[in-house]
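Two entries, shown back to back:
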Amino acid sequence: MKKQLLKVIALTAVLFASGQVFAQRYMQEIFSSYTKSANMEYDTNRSLNLLYGQVPGQQPIFTASLKCDVYQPTGDTAAKRPTVILVHTGSYLPGIINKQTTGSKDDSTIVEMCKRLAKRGFVAVAVDYRLGWNASSTIPDTATGDLLRATFRAMQDVRNCVRYLRNNAATYKIDTAKFIVGGQGTGGYVALALGTVDKRSEIESLAKFQRSDFSPMVNVDVMGDWNGLGGVPFYNYGGETNLSGKIHMIFNYGGALGDSSWLQSNSLPVVSMQCVSDPFAPIAIGNVVVPTTGVTVISNASGAKTTIPKANALGVNNKINSGNYPDPISARAITIASGVKNLYPFYTSYPAESAPWEWWDHTVMNGITSVNYNGIPLPASGHTADSLSMLTNPYMSAARAKSYIDTILGFVVPRIVTQFDLLPPPPDTLKVFGLAFPPNNYSAVVSNDSTKLDTITWQASATDFPSLGAITYTWLLTTATGNFSSPLLTMNSSTNMSVFKENIIYSLLVANNVPQGQTLNAKWTVKAKIGSSVKWSKDTFNIALTRGGNAGVNEVNLNTAVSVYPNPAQSVITVSSTQNVLINSVQIIDITGRTLITEIGLNNNSYQLENHHLNAGIYFINVSVKDGGNIIKKIVVE
């Protein structure tokens, strides 16, 4: 396969979990212009030839060049951007030939949507796909099989377009973890299939997608799979296996889901908009009708009123549904959709309207008498296409269509933003947290020991915006009467714990002229940070730090003199000391700072604790000796 590789309403903005409001990228147009890379060949593949049997010398299958247009915001400095791929309508036939005014990536609605999305800060891609099927057939098996295979080829093409974009992500500044596919009309069928089909059985084993002899209408061994891979080369050039065609979200305005069984808990997040009066696609469960013949080609397809409630119930849309949408478009949607989230049913003023977001120029359309197909001009009546399209869009105008596009973007973009955490967090995004160990009003004798480790712990904070990265912490120590803007000591940590050598604190006491045997009354706290958001602990704990002496027990390295074993412990914990160091008291403290056990007046060289009542986890054992001094040991209980 040949690849050309290249290195509504303007919402002020909405946010969600906090209800805060932001005016910024994605939620509105912040760029004044866009840059369009037109007719980029993303793939070549085998396609049905509509000229076969009509023009002498034509073969039934030919190699088609597949193109896309890439729209980017002009002047954007972002290194990576989410990408919205739009799939056009047209009944899998070229425009005008299909007796419609639409049928390519150059359709007015597709172009307008791409322009607006680019100005909001997205990369927008208008994609063409392989066309061709026997739209004039009145034989159900033939019509259904042809249409199903056309949809399948279009799915493969969109996957291969994603591969092209992923391969050129640096050129187009694409975030390859954020591909969204939106489909208009016929493209809606493609988008919904892309987001749901992931098993061979879903294509080949459903009775309605089998011929009368029970053979599958789509044979994966022949056509390749739903990812565009494999197949017989005469019918399909398999996609590049080293490039992923994965997408991450879908939406549709028009179209329907081929079968409700495709939608399962692992399907992609989905948002749907559809006219309730669409004569060709059902709004709930119903038949799909071909505009050119009126023949039913798919029975019991699932429209938006069936698909979206099921997606919500399966948990497919949990992330989208975590958002709060106080905008007027969402408020209107909830009302007219009877409380169903992610569904916007359009109730239009005409009883058989299918696509009020489309428009075209009457004069230009009526002047068309031929269409170029595969290098050959074919007779085609723009007048007929104009007349037939007006039957289901009688009030068509550019202004009216653009107002519907306002609604489409105003509804789907906030949900894309929620799904991918695209809005910056509010200033107070971090959750409240407290201090743990050592507890408030704790006293410690500090020795000049470079081998003894001291441990400070606090509760972990949290955020609703994990895309910002990891939370970092800073532990701060200052005098009891001081402030933390000028701390005596700070230490950074990537976890809710700080471990350091005790002689660091000893040196601090010396530097602050604390005499041997005297105490510095201090206090400590912790601040958390993620992105630009900072939150201080809700607590400030006092601590008395006594500088150890130079005689008697203080000359003894308590880290060596006192032992706690076994570690990890299972049944019994033993605290022991050398003969010249008597244990006075033992405290067992959990990682949250709670004192669980206190034993005083021991006056012994050994203490044993049966730990059967301690849960598995990390604990601190604070050992005080008779002649002054203490040490904290960490132990793991299994």
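entry 2 starts here
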Amino acid sequence: MQLVRRFRLPALFCALAVLFCELISRPYAEMGISDDGPYILMARHLARTGHIVFNGWAAPLLGWQLYLGAAFIKLFGFSYTNVRMSTLLVAVVTAWLLQRTLVLAGVNERNATLGTLAFVLSPLYLMLSVTYMSDIFGLFAVVICLYGCLRALRASTERAAIAWLCFAVATNAIFGTARQIAWLGILVMVPSTLFVIGWPGTPDWRAALRERRRVLLAGCAATVAGAVFIFACMQWLGRQPWIQPEHLIPNTFPIGRTWREVGEFLMDAPFLLLAMVALFLPQIRRASRRAGTVAFLVSLAYTLRILYAVCRPGRAVSHLLEPTHQSLGNWVGIHGIHEGIHLLGDMPIFLHPWMQWVVTFVSLGGVLGLIISALPSTRRMPIRKAADTNPRVSWRQLGVLLGPFALVYTLLLVPRASIGWVFDRYLLELLVVALLCLVRYYQERVSPQLPRSALLLVGLTAVYGVACTHNMCALYRARVTLAAEIQASGVPDTSVDYGFEYNFGTELQHSDHLRSL
């Protein structure tokens, strides 16, 4: 146990598991994957000239992501794969940090390890970790800020609390330059932490507040400094040519479509955390007769709704079965590849309809079991809390720390939902919040240890994630081979439409920015 505590072996195992699964999926392809082609070429320009120059596609700031990619180019030479390995490095570090964050939040080592593996070995995380998209970089900024805030809450001295608050602000400011929404760490999560520290909820709260005055003043000063840094970065970004501006207020706001998009978006969350959500299925058996009847009626109504949609000709059921969103742009879908590939023809089905039914009802059943387990009338087995459960971070503190962040993050996605541009990869930060709450709730209300079936579920998740990552990269490698054969026959690359990802590279060879936008 001393060896485990000293070297953080469970967290190291999570990091190595990500690396192992990625390597066996053969994650290489010498062309852009989704949006990352222009980003990779920006990193190459930075490595050559030392200047950040946008080329007409980037909406995120990118920031330190470009410098890390440029460093990999300097060290290993330029190739699309070399630059993407910088994302894999960040993904490995994030897995390590996430396991430690769960432990800080009161989850024991074993449960934190299984919960982390359920997240980092999911197809969404594995697929994004071998691209140069900004999602993993933004997730890292949020997780490290959450880690710093939890350490500040657990600090035993004022000096330590101030140091960890400054750490949370500084790291979120720097690493948030890759993806602007990650700055919610400074704008929401750190102020929430200060509220928890400054409002202890004790009868003698005024005296406690006076004792924490130095921490509050230092935290507020750090937050203001972080906000000034964010403002300066946004002013700089607004003056750059060839950027894609983001609009918080859309020109049109169709309410019906927006609610449907947000609903389908949130319905993906149980599916993407299936290894943890499925653990609550047995709780349905412990429900009272009334709760069991309600669960049965809900399941029956959902089944009849699907059958009704199937029986009506021309009506799609993609929004009723998991994965719910089969539209272009999603990463986890029925084809086992990145769903955003714009190619002619019918792609083979990787996740067959019968399997969609299975995962849909496992997801729905897990959510119902979770709700039932929280009802006062539910029959519960007497349990004993695990010995290493951390009592110093209460549910109230976690709610104040994570609740406002999750709410503001979701609200910022509503404008994108109004135009149909909200994708499953935007769930990464919300999945971290859900994962933490699910694992700790199971540990305290169901059983001190996650069951052995969690190992099987995590293993199945990893197999599925590796298969999807392999399929995606193999398809892109095939497109590169096809393009090379056509060009070898004398047809110039400007005369063939190879798909928007390949066309990005072709256009940027002849122009300093994308003129076709």
